[in-house]
Every structure is written in structure tokens, then in C-alpha cells.
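Blinded run. Sample ID left blank on purpose so nobody reads anything into the name before looking at the predicted structure. Input follows.
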Amino acid sequence: MPQIYGGRYTAEHNEPFVVFLIGMRVNKLLAVRRWIQTASAMGPMLATLAKHPEKGLLGGETWVRWREIMIVQYWRSYENLERFARDRDDPHLEAWRQFNRAVGSDGSVGIWHETFVVAPGQFETVYGNMPRVGLSAATTHVPVGAGRGTARERLRGEVYNAAECQQGV
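Blinded prediction complete.
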């Protein structure tokens, strides 16, 4: 059982990073061979990244719900993520080719990803009575204390204001 940290904690990271969400959805339950092949392609990728931290993966977690699997990953940079995705010596490129050959656009399995580049001070986290999860497991896990007590303080006061951005402020 993971260690539970009583009280409130936050993640601390003073460099840019990337949040990468990737998932698959089983659209046709009877297409077992296609979705098993798609789901099993992630294992070698995660094993490679665990064995080679220099490739830039800071950490991540897998989430499963009916018909869907999602992985939340934290990367050191977009360049690291892109290099891993395109490198012929890493398992992603071949898995992508196999998916396109086996599934293509037949609709049996859906795949998706979203990528977010996060600047220092442009994220906020809080974990209450939790084990290290999410960004705090991938970076530095610190107690909420002076200067980190509110969401605005954890964001260093640099809160995105859509109205100001639209007005060019």
C-alpha cells in the first residue's frame, strides 16, 4: 500500500514541462484482436521510458474505465516527447504503423492524445491526505505552507485572465 501523506501537499517544479494525455477506446467489443494489439503496444513504450529516464519522461499514471484506457504523462520537454514518438529505435513509431495497418479507420478502436506545454508558475496542484500522485509523483512533493496556501499563491499570482488576453492587456 502506498504511503499516505497526511495534510496538504503540492507539486513544485520550476522549469517548463509537458502534460501528455494519451488514450484508446474499444469501440467494437468483438474486435478483440484489434483492441488487444492496440492496448498491448503501450507496454513496450512504457518499459523503454522507465529504463531510459534520459528520454525525458518525468512520470505518469494509467487510468482505466469501461472501454477506455488513458495514460497521463509528464515530460521534461516537448522536444523529448516528439523525439521519442519519431525515433525509429524506440517502440512508438512501429506501434503507430502497426495500428494503421491493423485498424486504420475501421472504427473498431479509437485512439487520441492531447499535449499541453506548461510554463513555470502556470500550474496549480493540491493533494489532501493522498499518496504521491500526478505531478507530485513526477516532480517534487512538498507540504503546503507559507506562500503556497491558496491556489493563487501556488500559481505565483500569475493567473490567466481570458478577458485581459482578448483586450490585448
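Unblinding after everyone has recorded impressions. The mean pLDDT is 91.
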